[in-house]
Amino acid sequence: xxxxxxxxxRNKTNLIVDSAIFLAFLVAMAPRFxxxxxxxxxxxxxxxxxxxxxxxxxQWLVEVTKRFFSKTQxxxxxxxILNALLFIDITLVIFSGLMISEVALPFVGIxxxxxxxxRGLHGTVANLFLVLxxxxxxxxxxxxxxxxxxxxxxxxxxxxxxxxxVATPELAQINQLQSVEQLRKET
Length: 187
Ligand code: HEM
Prior knowledge:
- The structure is a single chain.
- The chain is mainly alpha-helical.
- It has one domain (about 5-160).
- It is built from nine helices and no strands.
- The chain has helices spanning about 5-30, 30-35, 35-55, 60-70, 75-100, 105, 115-140, 140-155, 170-185.
- Helix 5 packs antiparallel against helix 7 (about 115-140).
- The termini are far apart.
- Protoporphyrin IX containing FE binds near residues 39, 40, 94 and 122.
């Protein structure tokens, strides 16, 4: 990708957004910990965020889909397939979640007949999503490490004192004087 001046701030935004999505996902994976209301509204917000994300990047999606069928690297194809699976799976998670909703849909006056199959599907596709996210993180591991080093570790790391033996003009001059002194003593 072409590097521009705007790149660092874009990377920073991506790191913040991705971390927020990841944290929200972790909370959504533990409904007993968060409580049902938070779980359901967070899940619905997740769905809205993904739809907005796709609509905002629609042109990019069209381009990447075209490229998939033309000449491209296999790593790019694997990435594309994994992203498509993530999208299909999260759609199933949210749809099955809505079908078993206990808080959000009754809140807006919709009461669906509860079914064990939707419950089973919801748990299964949520667990599958966890596996897919693991692969997604593994595929982008180098980017994650680089961004953490750049925006999280480096800004808070103490500045290193100048190392001994580093060639500064002053040190070079002192060394030279010491050598001359040494020579004088020896002769
Ligand atoms: C990011 C999206 C979501 C994820 C990752 C997710 C994940 C999960 C997980 C892991 C469970 C526990 C399953 C089990 O114990 O077998 C669960 C339960 C549940 N989820 Fe979700 N969920 C999401 C979205 C939603 C949405 C949008 C709704 C409804 C509006 C919803 C409604 C429920 C309900 C009612 C349960 C309890 C099922 C039971 O008691 O067996 N979820 N969810």
